Amino acid sequence: MRDVAIIGAGMIPFGRRYEDSLLDMLAGASLKALDDAGFGSQSVDALYVANVGAGMLQHQTAIASSLADRLSLLPAAAETIENGPASGSSAVKAGLLGIASGYYETVLVVGGEKMRAGDGAHTTDFASTMTHPQAEYPYGVTMPGLAGMFARLYMDKYNLTAEHLHAVSIKNHEMGALNPYAHFRKPINREEIFDGPQAALRNPIVADPLRLYDLCPTSDGAAALVLSSVDIARRLGRPYVVIAGFGQATDTQTLAERADPTELKAVTLAARQAFAQANLRPSDIHVAELHDAFTILEIAESECVGFFPKGAGGEAALKGQTRLGGSIPINVSGGLKARGHPMGATGVAQIVEIVWQLRHELPENRQVPNAQTGLTLNFGGFANNVLCFILKRAEP
Amino acid sequence: MRDVAIIGAGMIPFGRRYEDSLLDMLAGASLKALDDAGFGSQSVDALYVANVGAGMLQHQTAIASSLADRLSLLPAAAETIENGPASGSSAVKAGLLGIASGYYETVLVVGGEKMRAGDGAHTTDFASTMTHPQAEYPYGVTMPGLAGMFARLYMDKYNLTAEHLHAVSIKNHEMGALNPYAHFRKPINREEIFDGPQAALRNPIVADPLRLYDLCPTSDGAAALVLSSVDIARRLGRPYVVIAGFGQATDTQTLAERADPTELKAVTLAARQAFAQANLRPSDIHVAELHDAFTILEIAESECVGFFPKGAGGEAALKGQTRLGGSIPINVSGGLKARGHPMGATGVAQIVEIVWQLRHELPENRQVPNAQTGLTLNFGGFANNVLCFILKRAEP
What we know:
alpha/beta; 19% strand; 38% helix; two-stranded antiparallel sheet; homodimer; 9-stranded mixed β-sheet
């Protein structure tokens, strides 16, 4: 099992991209990553595209082959990888295994989604297609609905209040405001959204206890990475990133079937595998990107991954421990909450952010000083397919 | 790069399976392959599901996670792989790289498609979603339409007649009649379909020069394989199959952009790569499964792969060289033409057939005697993403 490096990273701003087709977005992000890797006119051995909705939303299939042609990467191998909201991470995994196996030397991984293709009901329904086709979907449950039920149980169990959730939302909007690739680039005004007399109107209940500002937006966007063998990475003569640990675990599709629905077993397992492979502990991580499609998830995951003891994640967020300058900065990118969550792109974008952090090339107001290690955790379904990566900076 | 074995194979009969859901079919084929591998209650490390249309046709996403739960394979890793009609081969490739990399010891690969979900127009449109979204799809071209244009050029260039195409169709229907998993289990009556006064009615033009009996049907179905390291395969104490060579190549998405549209460059390249890795020549292959969604393709591919010189494939088919007992038996399963073509399943089903051939466990009337080597070639888009596997029998 040989080591795998990340030598190129790029993305296009997430948000409303009505004028771009899905292929436009995938191509745009890909070209940035290829350019970052110094692959001006050089091809790659293989291409993995992460996407969930091309068939349903764009009425297109086989988009990976289409992209290989569009980017003049022929005759590179190409596939589309789908794993719900964790598709991007699964495509990075595909690249990792392709290079680790020795079959490929260089792989382009790109994730993208064009989600703002219909109205809000349409998008909510699209996300719901990952729920159980007999036990959930026909009853009308949505992802925010599942998250609301999870949040209620979790908050009761660990004595969390809305204040704990607000801390996550405020932090991620604040960081998103500093990230030119974020969908939301505006800090939250506490008075307007949480405390003032108009707050309940501006921040209405979506799925009790979750309100609008506990949810990620519906975004268009794409992000890309170039992976290679370490031999190739070394020759580039600049710092690069190594995939030091990888983990993945599945869980029951329905929340109702879990012995304790507040335990995110797949998160715990995936992180444990990644730490074991990397031979690191949670306290060794300098910066993390977690899957905060709902604020409660950032708190729960920060505990399952091992950054805080069970039940202590909410207080940690409230006390600023997950902010830039805290003990473990989480979602300095703005996270799904503010950067946005174009499904296929998210897992790739999480790693793009960590690559930038580990190469120390971000502006001072959002760079974790001297970051050497990073972690990403992505959440497919309602934590029924979770992937975790641990990344390390490497000198040439 | 360590060797990878196939230790389990199974499928469910292809055809009209109105009463089965997509998940039912995937689970049914998976259980047969797991059972064949002797994995009664043992889990696998990872699961790859090949499927194209779950989102568009079944309004479901993240089906790999769903299947992992359904089969009680938790916490096994799970992803869906899509590459149009070559999706099944791409999922086998994913399993191959997963085990070759050392990340996994055992992988379940299952491909399935529920295509007979709407009327014929709906299915034809579904297949057309893999065409170019600007240069082809809006103009109404269909896959049979592209194949018709290709056939006309190819037949003109190499002096082929309808008789050459009939030879493929007759052979594959004859073999399908012997395969209990085939969609069509009835030999073609020459008089009725090709020669008699009613032939033009019973075998109407679909896309000139291709007629109904030149096309594969629209099928439901699923097929599955269990892959493992060779260490595990050896311990089973019975013959198994090794993946000796793999190749994959992409080409332009539109046929019109190719310097010579009759050259299937991606087929030639993918096969060349697979032969190089296996260190074998075309004459070393004992049995092959080619992608005959259209009869003309079996002829063209039999040349590109290297079984016959360019332009000689039609005569070879007519003279029986591709029949059981000929110099290279092709599509003894009945091929896509008669076994059927549930898109996600096809690439997996091709390998299931070769595994059965190489383990010498088929009935005498469709077993290639003492077969030691096999080849599969699968065709995504209109030959814009092609995968080739070379398989070898191994003794424990």
